[in-house]
Structures are given as C-alpha cells and as structure tokens.
Amino acid sequence: MRKIVYAAAGIALAAGIATPMMAMAADSTTVVVTGADLTTTAPPGPNQFLVIEQSGTGGSVSTVPGPATAPLNKGSLQLAVAGTADHWSVYNYDHTGTLLSDITALSYSTYTDNTTTAPAMQLEINPGAPAASCTSCASNVTYSTLNFEPYQNSTSQQSLKAGTWQGWNVLDGNVWGTHLNMGQGPGVSWSQFIANYPAATVKFGFGVNVGGNWSAMTGNVDALTFGTAAGTTTYDFEPTVLLSGKDQCKQGGWLTSNAPTFMNQGACVSYFASNGNAHPNS
C-alpha cells in the first residue's frame, strides 16, 4: 500500500498585532491498494478492504491491470460473478462513524462487460431516527445497506455502457436502503435521503458490490473516493508488482514495486541484499 498526499493543509500567517489565521485546507490523499490490501479477516486494517463472499461459490475479486486505460495509473479492482447465486462485497472501514450529512465527496468509476449491471457502491449505515416529516420512513432500524446502482442512475447521469470507463457521482444520484421501506430502487436522491434520515452514519464499511441475482458478469472499479470537510481519500486499485531481486531495482525499477514500496533505489537494493530484513523505506 502506498499513501500519497497531493494537497496539504493551509498556512498560518502573522503580521502586526493581530492577523487572523488562514482557514486550513482539507487534505486530498490517494491510497494505492494492491492485492495484498484485500483481506478476508474482519475488521480490515487501515487502507485495507474486506472481501466478503455473501453467497454462492463462483466468481472472484482481485486487483488486475487495466482494463483499457484505467482512470488512475495502470489497474483496477475486478469483481466477477458466475451466475445468479453469486454475490460479492468489498468494504473499507476507514470512515466508520462519519455522518452521511458530512460527506462532501462520494464517487467512483466503473467498467463492465454488459449494459445491464455494473458494480454498485454501498455503505453499511445506521440510519438513526427518521425525520418527523417522513411518515413513510422506517424507524427503529439500526443497520441498512445504502446502495447506489449505476443502471438506476442512467437517466440522471449517463446510460450504462459496456467496455468503457464511466464515472459516477453518488451525491448527485439516487440511492436506496435495505430495511427502510424503499424496496430495491430506484430510491430517492442523496439529498432527500439525508433529509429523511438526518442522523444517519456509516456504521461499518463502504465500498462496492456485485451480484445478488445477477447474470454472469465481470466489472471493474477504480478511483473510489470518500470525502468530508476534514479531507478526501481516493483509493487507486493496482495489480501487485513484486520484484525478484536487487538488479530489478535499477533504472527506476524500484518505482514499479508496490509489495513492498521503496523510498529509493538504495532502499530497494538493501532490501534484497539483506534477504528482506532491511526496511524498504530506510
């Protein structure tokens, strides 16, 4: 895993007797996620993703090159189902406890092999008490899966296409939640959901999902983004790149490795010269 901060906090200036401090700018961070960061052990660690086979015995989850030109760098997260019995979810737990009303960025890009289904974004939430004005809202619910389905947003955003990367902005789309008297889509706008459930929080994970009575398909995800006023994190999924020896550290080869990542060529050479005992970032 490699974490890169692209935009840092603001700068405080002082002049004379009393010059106010400038507002602090939110960090914008990109986290590289490889196959080594996918785990089946709950809860996942920071920047890791928990892979859950919800049902069935077919399909798979992995990080792969491409397909085509991925939105960020060279790869993506690939999720596949073999038939209607299969169902996979991939969740990150870094944002547990966040109020949904505090989310300022929630987006991702998908690639699919069909025009009917593409990976959905999901948040495991505690919806909290509904607004008094929402007479149809469910109460006393402490767990719901909030879903954004690309095909249900084809009118408001874009039609679902096969064999091309498409970006989706959840905050400008329709969502629906399980156990909340909402059926299975098309749901309501994000802003309306927040109005209905103003105390809703991320209870466990956020991530992506495929399957659950879907026909066989393969879909990919990249540039998975979650942001609040405190900062925005974008997850860049990449295939695992392993070097086999110190000679591969040369001519910029150390930059291609992501399992582990190295701070420079010397650290890479030292790592292999010590049979992996030297720290890759020292």
Describe this structure in words.
This protein has 3 helices and 16 strands. The strands form 2 sheets. Strands 1, 2, 5, 6, 8, 11, 15 and 16 form an 8-stranded mixed sheet that branches. It starts with a strand and ends in a 9-residue tail after the last helix. It is globular and about 65 Å long. It has helices spanning 190-196, 253-256, 265-273, and strands at 2-7, 27-33, 38-39, 49-55, 60-65, 75-81, 87-92, 103-112, 120-126, 144-148, 166-169, 174-177, 188-189, 201-211, 217-228, 231-237. By secondary structure, the chain is mainly beta. A hairpin with a 2-residue loop joins strand 15 and strand 16 (231-237).
Descriptive labels:
282 residues, mainly beta, eight-stranded mixed sheet, 3 helices, 16 strands, 7% helix, 37% strand, globular
The shape, in one word, is globular
- Report the count of strand segments: 16
Largest sheet: 8 strands, mixed
Oligomer: single chain
Write the layout of secondary structure elements.
Blueprint: E1 2-7, E2 27-33, E3 38-39, E4 49-55, E5 60-65, E6 75-81, E7 87-92, E8 103-112, E9 120-126, E10 144-148, E11 166-169, E12 174-177, E13 188-189, H1 190-196, E14 201-211, E15 217-228, E16 231-237, H2 253-256, H3 265-273
Parallel strand pairs: 2-16, 3-4
Antiparallel strand pairs: 1-2, 4-7, 5-6, 6-15, 7-14, 8-11, 8-15, 9-10, 9-14, 10-12, 12-13, 15-16
